[in-house]
Amino acid sequence: MAMALDALLKRCRAWKHSHLLGTKDLSREDISLVLDVAEAIPSVRASAPLKGRRLFNFFVEPSTRTRTSFSLAARSLGADVVDFSPSNSSLTKGESLKDTARTIESMGVAFTAIRHSASGAPMFLSRLVKSAVINGGDGANEHPTQALLDLLTMRQRLGKITGLKVALVGDIAHSRVARSNLWALQKMGNEVTLVGPSTLIPRDLPARSTQDLDAALRENDVVMMLRLQLERQQAGLFPSTSEYVRFFGLTRERLGLLKNGTIIMHPGPMNRGLEISGEAADSDRSVILNQVSNGVDVRAAVLLLLSQGGT
Ligand code: CP
Fold first, then answer.
1. What is the distance in angstroms between the CA of the first residue and the CA of the last residue of the chain?
2. CA dist., res. 170 & res. 274, Å (int)
3. Gap from CA of 27 to ligand 1 centroid (Å)
4. How far is the CA of 66 from the centre of ligand 1 (A)?
5. 292 lines ligand 1 (CB under 6 A)
6. Sequence-separated (6 or more) residues with CB below 8 Å from residue 66
7. Is the backbone peptide bond immediately before 269 cis, with ω within 30 degrees of 0?
8. For residue range 158-214, what is the model confidence (pLDDT) as tens digits?
């Protein structure tokens, strides 16, 4: 067991980043390292390599998967977790993000995982605190650990993470998951197509786009459905939800268009009956719960890498 841990920690020292703010900053080698370390995590859990360290789960926006899996990941490696509830915190009395983070940090925190509705909040924080900052999702900007667990799931299910054709479908404009996946998938040598109404696909993203979902289902190895972020929509971006389903929903009828071996992904939370039908979400092509499971090992890998590496 100690041998396995020593070998893994030695590999982790190749990591050169003090924080994980986005996949845009990661190299191909960095991404492969996270996936490899994530797969080795079960073999080193019993050694509790993060015993004595603390993770501050600084979630200012709601989360089920990311927040829970950061807690499980940290605890599984022996670390303690400081959870945060914005509505019961002194943020409600006007305390700033900076003062909140530094207050908790002065109680002894090695890692701060932050989720915030403002794009750039994790970068801002990383300049102010001593702990390693991990972006748990910032506005429509990035959600790096989600993309990394998505890539691990693709590699496990399809046997490779290069040379794949991947369709990101739906509300690209508001999706940090789409951006983090786009940067990571392109860096690993995959072909990404953005599928959705033109009003929901930003023109400045460097990828092919189409409104033809049926063709995308026939051509791609991975179909990643994205949540229609109803809470962030401005009026007029699409005519109605029923029209959206007709053109861009992964309905039961459309399942028959998928080519052999294609997997269905969704980062969650899902709007069943909107961007994805219950039949698609629960079909044998769906790897949605594998994505969730992989979140724990990927986040544990990120914590371990940040504890060992850094500039
Ligand atoms: N995929 C994702 O970020 O889910 P949560 O909002 O539940 O964390």
1. 28
2. 10
3. 24
4. 5
5. no
6. 59, 113, 115, 136, 137, 143, 145, 146, 295, 299
7. yes
8. 999 999 999 999 999 999 999 999 999 999 999 999 999 999 999 999 999 999 999
